[in-house]
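$ ./design --mode recover --in tokens.txt
reading tokens...
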């Protein structure tokens, strides 16, 4: 399950439990809609309550990232898991977006606001 909120030009996404394809497709639609409306976008993705994800989500994420990797400015990911940090580092090599992983939400929000 995911939640999606808008706050000062930042799309805030929370993932809870198993991240499934229908959730990811909702996320994709929201990102594309916001890009059309605003022209640019930053993301705060909270994965602290995510239990896992399905293989089809991983494949869709690769496809979506390849297509829209240059459209998103900053991406802050909230997670304490080491594999998330490694995945973000690997993804950074294929996109133009700036990606940072945080375990502190206040620091993530500060970075997204450009106050780093």
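writing sequence...
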């Amino acid at each position: 399950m995911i939640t999606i909120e808008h706050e000062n030009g930042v799309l805030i996404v929370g993932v809870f439990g198993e991240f499934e394809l229908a959730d990811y497709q909702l996320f994709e639609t929201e990102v594309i809609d916001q890009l059309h409306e605003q022209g640019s976008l930053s993301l705060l993705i909270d994965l602290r309550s995510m239990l896992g994800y399905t293989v089809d989500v991983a494949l869709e994420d690769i496809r979506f990232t390849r297509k829209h990797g240059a459209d998103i400015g900053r991406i802050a990911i909230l997670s304490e898991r080491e594999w998330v940090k490694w995945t973000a580092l690997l993804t950074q090599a294929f996109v133009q977006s700036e990606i940072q992983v945080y375990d502190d939400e206040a620091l993530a929000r500060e970075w997204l606001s450009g106050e780093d």
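exit 0
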